[in-house]
Amino acid sequence: xxxxxxxxxxxxxxxxxxxxxxxxxxxxxxxxxxxxxxxxxxxxxxxxxxxxxxxxxxxxxxxxxxxxxxxxxxxxxxxxxxxxxxxxxxxxxxxxxxxxxxxxxxxxxxxxxxxxxxxxxxxxxxxxxxxxxxxxxxxxxxxxxxxxxxxxxxxxxxxxxxxxxxxxxxxxxxxxxxxxxxxxxxxxxxxxxxxxxxxxxxxxxxxxxxxxxxxxxxxxxxxxxxxxxxxxxxxxxxxxxxxxxxxxxxxxxxxxxxxxxxxxxxxxxxxxxxxxxxxxxxxxxxxxxxxxxxxxxxxxxxxxxxxxxxxxxxxxxxxxxxxxxxxxxxxxxxxxxxxxxxxxxxxxxxxxxxxxxxxxxxxxxxxxxxxxxxxxxxxxxxxxxxxxxxxxx
Length: 393
Known about the structure:
The chain is built from nine helices and 14 strands. It is an alpha+beta fold. The protein has three domains: about 1-125, Beta-Lactamase (2-Layer Sandwich), CATH 3.30.450.20; about 150-230, Helix Hairpins (Orthogonal Bundle), CATH 1.10.287; about 240-390, Heat Shock Protein 90. Strands 1, 2, 3, 4, 5, 6 and 7 form a seven-stranded antiparallel beta sheet that branches. The longest helix has about 60 residues, at about 130-190. It is rod-shaped.
């Protein structure tokens, strides 16, 4: 007996013994039926997929083995027995135990000699695992989308809170600066009024008023700068900066404070040949002065501050401010540049606002550089910043 596919007329099987042997070992779920839907041949995969182990299959009706076959399937079988082909990419199949498997199937009629339809051939593939993976991917995508939305909402809230904070700080700083200017102005008038000279105690009190007012004024300026950076309103104009001259000027700004604290400052940068970096001169001076003031303020009595620089790669320069002061605990280094985190002062009686270092880091980054710190408790700290080196012509 020879079997052919209908329509395509492709050869299917020839010689019963031969095709029975082939069907038995084909690693796919295939069943061959006659016109009465009785089994002519099946593969082992068909028997396993449809849990027919131990059943007498050949010669029995498909509807005898599966008495609950839905009418939909019977209609499909009859449609294909009329010479048609049916396929389906995914279809649920309910087993006798109530479990559902998903299958992909294809049904072809086969022809006897003289082009007479002899029955149908069914090819099926269990795709339950693939279907489960598809569903898992869908679930994961949904969870990712939901999480993305949650993070987006949280980010928007955080950004809104940050903007509100920056606006509040900016507003309050401006409001404070006006009366503070008046206080400083009157203090300076009292201090320098030749018509009404102050006695010793009065002079000392006025000097304290002016000193405290100037400190508060500098804090307000730092808050305004920090707010401007966080809101994206800070303007930084990079240019070619003579590093040796800038370090010299910065040391001069803090030299009186260093003398009052018996701190020695050593400028090793001036030993180098001229060095130019890409930076905003005003902002770079602000950063360096702030680092020097901290190195003086948190140093030990008669301590040392030294300033050095070194080449990093071919186009980066690292400027370092070293001190012999209190040092910082390793656990606190991650928080050192967070606004209003006064980790440097935990073991110190010296007051600090927690604004200076965060501002320095953000200013350095705004100039295209970066900032970091190395420290050992009881031995001192090294704050460094890296900037682009400008090659001389």
